[in-house]
Amino acid sequence: MPHPPHVLTPGALDTREFARRDAVARLAAEHLGPEGICYGTMSAYHARTPGHLTIKNANVCTREHGKVWWGDLDVTANVRELRALAQALGTTVFVIPEPFGRH
What we know:
By secondary structure, the chain is α+β, with helices and mostly antiparallel strands. The chain has helices at about 15-30, 40-50, 75-90, and strands spanning about 55-60, 65-75, 95. A hairpin with a 3-residue loop joins strand 1 and strand 2 (about 65-75).
């Protein structure tokens, strides 16, 4: 007996959603580098880049795609890349600190 259309069977997962998320993550990595970038200690990084806005364990998110990238982010040095990512995705990107991007 076939399953009703609202019941997910093991083979019924929509792979298009996984492919879309993977494509968005690849696009973000092309603009910002690999996920999980770590600048080491923030005090040492700040000493090398005084005046830069840097967020440790930043999350780059959109309303449509959720979290698309995470890692240490120098917003000052990467503002062009963030704008280019927003343009490529056709939406606003938000940079938020780690505690707000865990879910």
